[in-house]
Amino acid sequence: MDATRPIWPRPPRRPQTTNLDGETNLKARTALSQTQAASTDAAIGRLACILECPAPNEHIHSFDARLAPTADAALLPLTTTQLLLQATHLRCTAWVYGVAVYTGNQTKLGCNKKKPATKGTQTDAFINRVSVGIFAFQLVLAAALGAAGNVWQAANGGGAWFLATSATPSWYTPLIIPARFLLLNSTMIPISLKLTMDLCKLAYARYIDRDSAMMGASREAGAVCNSTSLSEDLGQVQCVVSRANLCEWLAPVVRPGAHRSTLPRSPPLDAGAC
Question: What is the pTM of this model?
Answer without folding.
Answer: 0.44
